[in-house]
Amino acid sequence: MTDPQSPDTPEANDDDFQDDLNILDEGADKGRRPPLIALIGGALALLIIGAGLATVFAPSTSAPAAPTSAAALDTTAAPAAAAGDLPTPAVPTALPLPQAIGDTSSTEPVAQVGDATITRGEFVRAYQPGAPPSDVLQQLIQVELVVQAAQAEGVSVDQSKVDDQIAQIKQQNAISDTATFNTFLQDNNIGSEQELRALIGRDQVVEQMLLTHTTMEQAHARHILLATSTDNPTDDRQAEAEALLKQIQDGADFATLASEKSEDTGTKDNGGDLGWAPRGLFVPEFDDAIFSMKKGEVRLVKSQFGWHIIEVIDPAEMRGLESRDMLSTTPGQQAFTDTFLPWVGELESAAKDAQKIKILVTDDQLVTSPGA
Fold first, then answer.
1. Which string of b and e fits 153-183 if b means at least 16 CB within 10 Å?
2. Structure confidence at residue 252 (pLDDT)
3. 287-304 pLDDT per residue, tens
4. What pLDDT is stored for residue 190 in this prediction?
5. Which residue from 193, 236, 242, 351 could staple onto 356, CB 3.0 to 4.6 Å apart?
């Protein structure tokens, strides 16, 4: 799939209009997600790492960069000795990074969030060596606050989807018996299938809240594309497009014409429907049109891809996302930063004001000291 944020670049291929124009293609997640981490940690990892969408499937395990030498920042330091006078430098020994204390099976409470507790096992699962423990604990608290907000909003777990995800995990890892599956779970620091189900369900709920509370202006449109190329000059195709527009204006069914005439293979089979999409996802001419049109309005627009007969199904409005795929786009990332993260911040502030958050351990009780 080509970059949905750069369909207006010269490199864009006219034959791939749908890839560029609309990333919300059916089954976009199928067969491309890591077998376990993404299925139980997609949305949770996204929240835990803040706005770091590049590592949505799992937090980075790389060590933090070494701090800049103090001597390099000291303008009063003595001048360096001549090259011939320099002693052979000793090779520094890297200190081990702090590690989480305990294991993922621990049920010891390390924080209280209202009536819920965050356990040491949850902290161990989320912790990356060297990370500030207080930051990780705060992020787990934020996840719990999102889960509690979901309960208040009536969001529930779809158990059939949980069943499907477990079946997918087994299939992707060629697991056909219970004993092998239990071993696989233990190798991934998950104690049982029941625990896995709880993790998947929690992830599902957080993802729904993530989509609901990441809001942006979006419009819902459909189109018929007549692509242009050296074999199909613009003027020739314009006449065809105007004839199709006239048929629609005279009462022809848009979806039927799209399935018969549109050259956008990604949408023609569903009547040209592009779904809800935000500003900045489409090429400028298309974008400008759908965000200025009224409900039911039909317009002919020329872009680098060719001629589009566009109909706005629902005019622009502020709304949540329908698919997590949108979070991989530049508009989606911006909306995540501008709307979802502040919403989580408000949940945390309200919980603190109500004294619903209690930290039960100190940092040195969560991780080992550097070099220990």
1. eebebeeeebeebbebbbeeeebeeeeebee
2. 97
3. 999 999 999 999 999 999
4. 85
5. 351
C-alpha 191/C-alpha 146 separation (Å) is: 24
Residue numbers in the chain where pLDDT is lower than 70: 1-94, 232-235, 371-372
CATH match of 217-319 with 3.10.50.40: yes
Domain ranges of the chain: 29-58+96-214+321-372, 217-319
Task: Classify domain 29-58+96-214+321-372 by CATH number.
Answer: 1.10.4030
